[in-house]
Amino acid sequence: MKTINILGVNIHAITRNQAEKEIQAYLFDNKTRIIVTPGPEFLVRAHKNPDFKELLNRADLALADGSGLVFFSGGNIPERCSGADMIPTILKQLQHNSGKLGVILRDDGLSRADKLMHSLEKTNPGLHTKIVYKKSNETISKKILRDLTDFIPDVLLVALGSPQQEEWIFAHQQQFPQTKIMMGVGGALDYWSGAMRRAPRFMRNIGLEWLWRLIRQPRRLPRILNAVILFPLLVIAEKSHKKHYE
Predict the structure, then answer these.
(1) Listed residue (42, 82, 46, 57) closest to 4, CA to CA
(2) Does S-adenosyl-L-methionine show up as a keyword for this record (predicted)?
C-alpha cells in the first residue's frame, strides 16, 4: 500500500472502502496487526516526540483521521478514515464470524462499561465482549490483564487516549499472540456508549468535526489549537524547508 509521509509519519493513502477491506483481511490472518489513526494532534506530538513517531511508523496500518492530513497530502490521501468510521466494520465482522471483542477503557473516561455493553448488545447482538478498566497513571493489574489475555479477543480496542494507548499496545503486543487486531480508538467508543454525540455528517464532510468537539468540550481547546493552527504551520515550514534544499 502506498504511504505518504507527513511530518515524519507514514500515513496509508487509501480510501475508507480499501481500509475496511484491509481490516477484514486482517481478521482472517494469523498475525497480530496494529492499527493507528493519526490525526493532526498525533503528528504534532510525534514531531516533538521521536519515540512516539517511531511507534506510529511501526504500525501495520496508519489511517488518516483528520481532514488536515487529507488537505496537506496534496491529493495523495483520498479521504479521511477515522477510528469511529472503522469500528462498525470491525464489530459487524466479529458478529458474523462469532469473534470476540476486548475493550480497555479509562476509569476516568466518559464511557462506562455497562452503557457500552448495552449499546453493543443492541447494535451487534450476540457479540462476545469483555470490557476492563485501566486506572489513570497506573498499570493494569496482573489479574485483569490475565483475564483479558485468557479471553483471547480477536480484536482489542484500547481507549486510553494518545499516546498512552499506542504505548500500551506496543508494550503488550506479545501477550496477545492470537489477537488479530489491536487498535487505539481514543474517544471513538464514547459515541457507541452514548456518552457523546458525534458531529453531524455535514460537519464531518466539510472538515469541521473539530469545531463540534470544541463546542461540546471546551476543555479540548489546547488540543484543537494544535490541530488547526500548529499542525498547518509545521507542515508549511517542512515543505518550505524541503523546497529550499531541492
Answers:
(1) 57
(2) no
Count of CB atoms within 10 A of residue 128's CB? 14
Q: How confident is the model at residue 243 (pLDDT cuts 50, 70, 90)?
A: low
Q: Per the domain annotation, does 228 fall within a domain?
A: no
61 lies in some domain: yes
What is the number of residues in the chain?
246
pTM: 0.91
Report the DSSP pairing between strands 100-106 and 128-134: parallel
Assigned C-alpha cell, 95: 458478529
In this predicted structure, the answer to whether residue 245 has a pLDDT above a threshold of 70 is no
User: Cα angle at 61 between 97 and 50, to 5 degrees?
Assistant: 140
**Model confidence over 118-172: pLDDT tens digits?**
999 999 999 999 999 988 777 888 888 999 999 999 999 999 999 999 999 999 9
Q: pLDDT (tens digit, 9 = 90+) per residue, 209-223?
A: 878 878 888 877 887
Alpha-carbon distances of 215 from 53, 159, 194, 209, rounded to whole Å: 30, 22, 17, 10
Taking each helix axis as running N to C, give the angle between helix 83-96 and helix 16-26, from 0 to 180 degrees, rounded to the nearest 10.
Answer: 40
The number of domains in the chain is 1
First to last CA, the chain: 26
3-state helix, strand, coil in the chain (%, to 5): 50, 15, 35
Query: Of 80-84, 129-133, 150-154, 240-244, which gets the smallest average pLDDT?
Result: 240-244
Instruction: Give the structural domain span for 24.
Output: 3-199
CB 101 within 8 A of CB 93: no
CATH number, domain containing residue 105:
3.40.50
